[in-house]
Amino acid sequence: MGRNVVVTGGGTGIGLAVARRFADAGDDVVIVGRRREVLRQAAELLGPKVRPLPCDLADPDAVEGLVDQLPRRIDVLVNNAGSREVAAGAGPHALVARWRGDFERNVLTAVLLTETVRDRLTTGQGRVVTVSSIAAIRGAGSYGASKAALHAWNHFLAAQLGPSGITANIVAPGTVAGTEFFGDRLNESELVRRAGRTLVGRVGEPDDVASAVFFLSSPEAGYITGEILHVNGGEILGR
């Protein structure tokens, strides 16, 4: 029997690869994100095991409205939604917009949904996997700080869910090509530079992260919780 899986930010990049991995394993997957058409196209690409549900996960009213459309039993919740806030200009107002935007898009999107569906996570085998970033360790202003906040929250969440046999872990990718995160900044020369910072001589692909998420969601990972799995080819070592 397949599992019920919810993947946020499942329309592109890492989230799309994660959704594909679960769907290929025979699981029923709900992908959630802000862009209705992007989600629709992703679900069409991935097949009948995948259902799209548009929602702004930083909006509590939208999350409340989403809940009735989600499975009554959730075996795996993957918190992948997030982005970097780009606030134009300088000064206090732009600073606040940047920090608040990164907190809302990277922290609240995970916390709001997880807390709202906690009672639906399957006792004894439920999995929560949250996608963070190498920026949480190496530092990257408001974006890195928001991802680091997820690490602290995950420790708390793991302690809360552990008595019910539910695990909560973080996957923290390094540079990953094939996503919308970098826009046009990840050109050929930048790819070469970033590959040179790793120990394996290449940047990551969405499937690299999806494999880590899939493992932490598996029965074999039932004794792993409160952990951060770094998926960065050794980039974190600062070569």
Report on the structure:
The structure is a single chain. By secondary structure, this protein is α/β, with parallel strands linked by helices. It has a single domain (4-237), classed as NAD(P)-binding Rossmann-like Domain (Rossmann fold, 3-Layer(aba) Sandwich). It is 43% helix and 15% strand. It is built from eight helices and seven strands, in the order E-H-E-H-E-H-E-H-E-H-H-E-H-H-E. It has helices spanning 13-24, 36-46, 60-67, 92-117, 135-138, 141-161, 188-196, 206-216, and strands spanning 4-8, 28-33, 50-54, 76-79, 127-131, 167-173, 228-231. A seven-stranded parallel beta sheet has the order 3-2-1-4-5-6-7, sandwiched between helices. Helix 1 (13-24) crosses helix 8. The model has no long low-confidence stretch (mean pLDDT 92).
Brief summary of the model shown:
This protein is α/β, with parallel strands linked by helices and 239 residues long. The protein is 43% helix and 15% strand. The protein has one domain (4-237): NAD(P)-binding Rossmann-like Domain (Rossmann fold), CATH 3.40.50.720.
